[in-house]
Amino acid sequence: VAPWRDGKAVMVTIEDTDLTVRTISDNLSATTPDLVFRAMAPDAGNIFSPTRATLATLPAENMLHVGFTASRTISSGTDTEVYSVVRDSTTGGAFVGPDRINFNSAFPTGNPTNQDHVSIAIDPISKRVLAAYSSVESALGQGYETVYISLYNQTTKSWGTSTDLSVFDPATGRTVLVEL
What we know:
Blueprint: E1 2-3, E2 9-15, E3 18-24, E4 34-38, E5 47-58, E6 63-74, E7 77-87, E8 96-100, E9 115-122, E10 129-139, E11 142-153, E12 158-161, E13 167-169, E14 174-176
Antiparallel strand pairs: 1-2, 2-3, 3-4, 5-6, 6-7, 7-8, 9-10, 10-11, 11-12, 13-14
């Protein structure tokens, strides 16, 4: 649940294979759900089984980001990735996406290790959108978990991710330390 316009709130839910957003009024009545994402059948490259949805809003800018984990089929089996869908003043009221939050040039078709537990925040001053998520990886035969941070480019409507615990700014093509 997150704040929205005119004293309302929005909430994201997963219903069967659909990711939906509802607006909640000040008297706690809910609107008909807006479809954000409908999962596809498990098949090569398709996104299915959405879980662990989260959202971030910037009501003054009519900006709503929904993040979630979903599965996809790759050559080695099933993989989980983190995705986002966005609605803002440039999308005509429609949700666009899903886009992989974990995009980087080293893995243009997705990271082959599992990503999960995404959280999204929007800075109300700079209007920059940041996502953090976990990834299960391995080095020297040992498995471990790490955290990645991604930055959203409002112009290209895309995410940029660098190495773990650093941020790649897709607008400048540089790794940066983000000051929020």
